[in-house]
Structures are given as structure tokens and as C-alpha cells.
Design brief:
The protein has nine helices and twelve strands. The protein is of the alpha/beta class. The chain has a seven-stranded parallel sheet with strand order 3-2-1-4-6-7-10, with helices on both faces. A three-stranded antiparallel sheet has the order 5-11-12. Strands 8-9 form a two-stranded parallel sheet. Helix 1 crosses helix 7. The N and C termini lie far apart (about 60 Å).
Length: about 290
Amino acid sequence: MRLENKVAVITGGASGMGLATVKRFLVEGAKVVIADYNEQTGKTALDDAGAAGFGDAVSFIRTDVANEADIAAMMQAALSKFGALDIVFNNAGVGGAIGPLTETTTSDWDYTFDVLAKGVFLGIKHAARIMKVNNIGGSIINTASIAGLSGDGGPLVYSAAKAAVISMSKSAAVELAAAKIRVNAICPGLIVTPLADGGSETAAKKAFANFQPWPEHGSGDHIAGAALFLASDDSSFVTGEAIVVDGGLTAAGPDLTSKFPKSSPNASRVSGVTKGSTGVSAEIRRLDK
């Protein structure tokens, strides 16, 4: 097995791409700490892993990735439970701020960057501290997005945060290379998860059909496969990369405004912030017509 005797922490691990990666890592022999803001989905993920025969190889800790104390506790949970920390997948995410930039509040901006950018920074920081002290090297993987690669790949604030993740991954890869800590980003395209299309996977599958050259929609398993490569020794000479997993969408040009005209900032009559699968309700404001 490719991750035998490895210990991994996966944020946002209770649903979507994170949960798919938890399952794949367990099958590949890793011990996994599931970190997630949503305790209910976290407990379900833990119970399901136990039912599948992986109970001794998995644990859950509620984690707010924007809270440094939570991040530190998450890393220590891996050391306390499994005695090591080899892989950290900073995957937790939310849709974040939506709507026209002229109607976006600083609190919407702050929430989005706290989760998507600061959360990744803290994950890199505390993973590196442990990996450097223990002199074991390791792999840090960060979820970015094709939205961080060009304009019109996603909402403005979300895109800016994901661009920051790509930049942080490259800078951290250079700084941590001497300690044999690899840092890479994954840039998903349109992936069907509980976050997609208002929380309906069925609606997302329909909405995402035929929007990229590849004839099938993206799934969490596709991201899990990329994460497995980056976590394993197969990628031992790969660091500082932003690996795109999007079925050829960026190659063709995202052009999301024309593909989702009703959700474009100029057409949208709402503003606010969405909070993904955290279990916390979105804060959406209707704009005057």
C-alpha cells in the first residue's frame, strides 16, 4: 500500500473532496485524522470508517481552520493518537463571498480569507513546525482552485483567496525544501460535492454536464487521486506545483460568466457569504432592484 505507516491530517475531511481523500488514504494504508468544523458530518464520517473496518486507523477532531489554537490542537491530535505526522492536506473550504464587488462587505471578505487563505497558512505553519522538529520531512497539500489561475474562474474574493493559496504553496515549497518538506497545491475544476450548486449534488451533476472537454463531471475521487500522488513517495521530487484537475476546463477557457449567466456578479441580485458544509447558515442579502 502506498501510504502504509503514514499519518495524515485532512481538513474539511468530513464531506466532499476531503471525505473522498480520507477514504482513499485509509484504503492505501494511512492513519488519518479527520478535521472538520461540522461535528455532525464528522461523526458520520468516523462511524462510516469504523463500519468499513478502519476504526483503529481514524479519528475526528472539530476544527475551525481560521483559529490557530484549533490548528495546533489538530496537529497534536495526530501525534497523540498515531505518534507521527507525515501528511497534511489543507483542504477545508467554503464558497465564501458572492455578489458584485461593489456590494461585498469587509466582513464577507474577512470570513472568506480567514477560511480559505489564513486556514491554509496556519496549516502549513504548524505542520512544518512538527515535521522540521522531528526531522522526518513530509508532504503538505493545499486545495486551491482553477479560480485562482485566471479571471472569470469564480467569484472575486474566492478567486483572490485561491490565488493566495497557490502563491503560498510555491513560497513555502522553496522555504521548506531543505527540510525535505514538499508543498503542493491542487486546483480543482467543477467538482460535484455537497458544496456545489447550493448543496445539491444532483443539481450540480446536471449543471456541470458538458462544461469541460472531458465528458464526465468531476468528483471527489478525482481530487483524492491527485492528493494520493502528492502524499506518496511517487511524488518525492515534486514540490511547489499547482496541479490542475479539471477535465480540461482551463485548457478550453473557464468562461463561467457565459456558462452560468444567472450567477454572474452583474446579474445577481444577492450579496453575502456562503459557508459550505460547516453547518452554519449562509448570510445572504437581497439587493434593491
